[in-house]
Amino acid sequence: MRIICPVKRVPDTAADKKIDPSDNTVDRDASDPVLNANDEWSIEEAMRIKERDGAEVIVLCVGPDSAKTTIRKALSYGLDGAIQVTDDAVAGSDAKAIARILAAALADEAYDLVIMGNQSSDARTMLVPAMLAEYLGVPALTYAKRLELSDGHATVDRETPGGHQTVTAPLPAVVSVVEAINEPRYPSFKGIMAAKKKPLETKDLAGIGVEAGEVGLANSSTQVLEITPRPPKQAGDKVADDGSGTVGAKALADFLAAQKLI
Amino acid sequence: MASFLVLVDHDEGSPKKVSNQIVTAARKKCGGDVAVVLMGKGAGAGAERLGAYGAARAYVWEGSEVDEYATEPAVAGLVAAIEASSATTVLYPADPFLTDVVARTAVRTGGGVVTDVVDLDLDGDEVVGTKPIFGGAMISRCKVRAGRPAFYGVAANAFPAEESGGSAPEIVTLEVSLDETATRARVVDVVEQSSGDRPEMTEAGIIVAGGRGLGDAEGFRLVEELADVLGGAVGASRAATDAGWYPHQHQIGQTGKTVAPQLYLGVGISGAIQHRAGMQTAQTIVVINKDGEAPIFSIADFGVVGDLHKVIPPLIEELKARQQ
Hints:
Chain A is built from six helices and 15 strands. Chain A is of the alpha/beta class. Chain A folds into two domains: about 1-220, 3-Layer(aba) Sandwich (Rossmann fold); about 235-260. In chain A, the strands form three sheets. A nine-stranded mixed β-sheet of chain A has the order 11-10-9-12-8-1-6-7-13, with helices on both faces. A two-stranded antiparallel ribbon of chain A has the order 2-5. Chain A has a two-stranded antiparallel ribbon with strand order 3-4. In chain A, strand 3 (about 20) and strand 4 form a beta hairpin. The N and C termini of chain A lie far apart (about 55 Å). Chain B has nine helices and 18 strands. By secondary structure, chain B is of the alpha/beta class. The N and C termini of chain B lie far apart (about 50 Å). Helix content of chain B is about 30%, strand content about 30%. Chains A and B meet through helix 3, helix 4, strand 9, strand 10 and strand 11 of A and helix 5, strand 7, strand 9, strand 10 and strand 13 of B.
């Protein structure tokens, strides 16, 4: 079995974001970028399959040269190798353009399963797994909180507001996962050292058969017109309860009534 | 002039609240002629109900495949509805399953998608969406570039649902043909835990959310009781779902759901940045926390510094008394 783990390099949620006003893109070097947290769950799930059934697991990442740190981090969990698509023309691509690039990078790759986080912590569109599946022409099993492989099929429990829906599809397939699927491990020291020696293949757009004019800021299907900081919220009144509970309760109920919320 | 098609989310013929909101918004923005598309069991009955919110025409496909297979039959149906309606812009509820349907449809039709908008501006043919980004730290205005189908995901509670006094829409039955690839992902089971009359968190107007300060799973009984008195849904912080105190699908924050209710009432939640990224665009934020220095107070419209186990029981009684 061969498994592809697409990963994304994202700004740390806790870091202040900087926007480049000339083109409304995120300055991705303004803070230390990290591996998208949701991708740790897909990496963990791939590792469990590898350890249980045997599999080759390959990281796939679209990003500039500096994304190599993110790729090495992903490899440190015990994955086998990586493909990086890097090209100046990728900058500013929207979710659909990225899905197109990921799919093109897999055109000549053998794979049974593509497994990825359900969303990135920065853009949070949730679009890429289904778009990638559509470009690849394979089924997508999304928002999985359980994954089982048997008889050439993947079966997942897809998280719903009140429970789940169990869906099964033949491989190859794209699976996206939510946090409830597993508890990711920490990379071992051995894993971190080994990651430095794992094969990393770098390709540009021409190398995967994508024209520069199909992707990037100017050719994406969507366009950001403006980004403005949201005015910071002013903290409102704070009432200290006296330990009885009733003082706080009454003050809170009074506030809700004054706001016509009850 | 942009023509809107609204992809409707419904439960066997009962349109979800967010669908009524989007039809209302579409009617007000484009001045009347709103088309809707409903698929699956009960689609026809659901379409009738949307006339009251201003749907003039409804494209309906009751194919059983929509409920028997994930995503792809609905993609074929949506493509057929776009063709039949000649719509230039599709509005859909920003729900994960419908996001999948739209994602595949956008690739298939050469369109573009803007997710999670809270406002829409119409300028001639051009639609521009406004959306919070980076957990509400910034606001972005963005659009789908001209000359291709445009898809805008609309956040729950971004618009009010208002009846138009309209009658039942004209019903157009869609002819949808599926190839064998549409039925690859088969739904084999559906498991739903009943939460009584409690609304779904992602479209609730009021959310009571609990965190580490509750102490244990038992603490969520208090949260549920408070939510029920307020007619709200129950949310949880990552600390609470990681501890197994409440199901993961109720998690609010960076690794869970983003919510923007009229009222967010957080109890025992300190308000780490990862949690705030999922709720800070709520209209009114009220919190109870025993640590008066907790970061959640910095974005709260009103806060009680106190022991939630002491404050919530009399609060429930106080609210009940005022409801009488």
